[in-house]
């Protein structure tokens, strides 16, 4: 904040609000609670007489601005006073302090990148109203840009600010329009310092383009002299980029598909107005803010009627499509119901008048076709086998043979005569062999008990071998 000083008697400077090529704006306060915006113009006035051309131009413009405020306009900042600073020779203009954001602020986060159509039309009407009011009195603004249009939070109106460029000398005006903040909104004729009512119309078109797309037609890339010259040449020579393409690219992704579709329906009359405002030659634009306002009012009225018709047609088409959709759904449901009715009748179901539903007979069982097929086949096979077993059963006579006249095969037995003597002899031999085995076993046990030398040698305990000790005593 700048140093607090007194601009003139009774008007205190509370600090700089902003500065630019056509002067600085300070927040001022009268001796009391009234807050104002004070603009200091860079054109010095050395003598408060008609002989000083700067003073003469300043006095003429101040008189016009007083005339502007004789008829109050809600879209133009109120003029309060003017004069020469006590501390120097700079003229100042004291205006109403408008509380609220400017259009440039409203295009920055957390706000959306672009304005909605209804708000753009509202800005177009109010800003054209301000221009028409000024041009009726012969006042040209000369510095219309998005940060010179504020939204008054107390009244809800858009207000045009920062008059004073027309008061500058031609040299100061040429310097001012090359300021980085204004060059994006300048008309082609402003490169040589020319300022017309059509100049304000061109800047109006740039603002409308910016609100719809989120950027000016020819953005400034950098703050060098080369970058500024590039923008000036673009204003004079290059065609304006397609507005609808730029708006489509700038649609917020947070908007629903339906809202995006609606916001792309920019009225043709508004596109025509913006296109005419942005013509390179001043003669091809609207002659003044008055003609511009008339075009906007006529377009909005016709557009409103056309818009109502479009809404009705759109709603009619939507309803017709919905009716067709419902009819198709009803047809599908009827087809399904007919099939269900046929199936219900086949299964023996009957409609219950009390409930309105088809109910099957609980005495009937519904069996799947495959299960029924296998069941029937199994029963048929069982029946065939059972019948075969019954009709092929042989006759049986009680007390008689089970199988009558049956012939059995005999095993091939070997005929041998039974030899009793041979059998007895074999038994005797087996007994003798058994006795001999017993005798040999007894003799063996007796021999084991005999004290034979060999037996003694085997049975004598072994002597323990004595270990020899080798050592020195």
Automatic annotation (TrEMBL):
The chain crosses the membrane at residues 371-391. It comes from Mucilaginibacter pallidiroseus. PROSITE patterns: PROTEIN_KINASE_DOM. This is Serine/threonine protein kinase. Keywords: Coiled coil, Kinase, Membrane, Serine/threonine-protein kinase, Transferase, Transmembrane, Transmembrane helix. CDD domains: STKc_PknB_like (cd14014). Residues 11-297 form the Protein kinase domain. Residues 309-336 form a coiled coil. Residues 443-473 are annotated as: Disordered. The lineage of its organism: Bacteria, Pseudomonadati, Bacteroidota, Sphingobacteriia, Sphingobacteriales. PANTHER family: SERINE/THREONINE-PROTEIN KINASE TNNI3K-RELATED (PTHR44329).
């Amino acid at each position: 904040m700048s140093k607090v000083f007194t601009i003139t008697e009774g008007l205190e400077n509370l600090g700089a609000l902003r500065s630019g090529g056509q002067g600085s704006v300070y927040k001022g306060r009268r001796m009391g609670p009234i807050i104002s915006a004070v603009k200091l113009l860079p054109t010095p006035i050395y003598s408060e007489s008609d002989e000083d051309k700067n003073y003469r131009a300043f006095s003429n413009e101040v008189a016009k601005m007083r005339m502007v405020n004789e008829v109050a306009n809600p879209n133009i900042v109120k003029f309060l006073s003017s004069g020469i600073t006590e501390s120097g020779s700079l003229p100042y203009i004291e205006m109403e302090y408008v509380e609220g954001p400017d259009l440039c602020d409203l295009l920055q986060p957390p706000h959306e990148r672009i304005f909605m159509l209804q708000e753009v039309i509202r800005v177009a009407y109010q800003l054209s109203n301000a221009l028409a009011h000024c041009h009726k009195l012969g006042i040209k603004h000369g510095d219309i840009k998005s940060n010179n249009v504020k939204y008054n939070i107390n009244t809800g109106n858009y207000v045009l600010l920062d008059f004073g460029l027309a008061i500058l000398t031609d040299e100061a005006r040429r310097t001012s329009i090359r300021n980085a903040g204004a060059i994006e909104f300048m008309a082609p004729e402003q490169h040589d310092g020319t300022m017309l009512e059509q100049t304000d119309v061109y800047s109006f078109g740039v603002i409308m383009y910016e609100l719809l797309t989120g950027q000016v037609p020819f953005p400034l890339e950098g703050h060098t002299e080369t970058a500024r010259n590039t923008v000036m040449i673009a204003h004079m020579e290059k065609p304006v980029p397609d507005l609808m393409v730029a708006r489509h690219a700038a649609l917020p992704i947070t908007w629903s598909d339906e809202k995006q579709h609606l916001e792309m329906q920019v009225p043709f009359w508004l596109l025509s107005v913006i296109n005419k405002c942005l013509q390179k030659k001043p003669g091809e634009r609207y002659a003044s803010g008055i003609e511009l306002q008339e075009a906007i009012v006529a377009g909005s009225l016709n557009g409103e009627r056309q818009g109502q018709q479009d809404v009705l047609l759109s709603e009619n088409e939507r309803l017709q499509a919905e009716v067709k959709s419902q009819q198709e759904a009803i047809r599908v449901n009827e087809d399904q119901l007919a099939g269900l009715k046929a199936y219900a009748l086949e299964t023996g179901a009957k409609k219950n008048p009390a409930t309105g539903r088809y109910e099957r007979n609980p005495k009937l069982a519904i069996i799947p076709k495959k299960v029924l097929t296998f069941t029937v086949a199994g029963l048929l096979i069982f029946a065939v086998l059972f019948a075969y077993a019954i009709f092929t059963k042989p006759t049986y006579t009680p007390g008689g043979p089970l199988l009558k006249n049956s012939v059995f095969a005999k095993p091939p037995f070997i005929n041998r005569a039974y030899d009793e003597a041979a059998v007895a002899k074999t038994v005797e031999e087996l007994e003798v062999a058994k006795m001999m085995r017993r005798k040999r076993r007894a003799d063996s046990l007796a021999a084991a008990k005999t004290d034979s030398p060999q037996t003694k040698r085997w049975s004598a305990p072994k002597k323990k071998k004595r270990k020899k000790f080798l050592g020195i005593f």
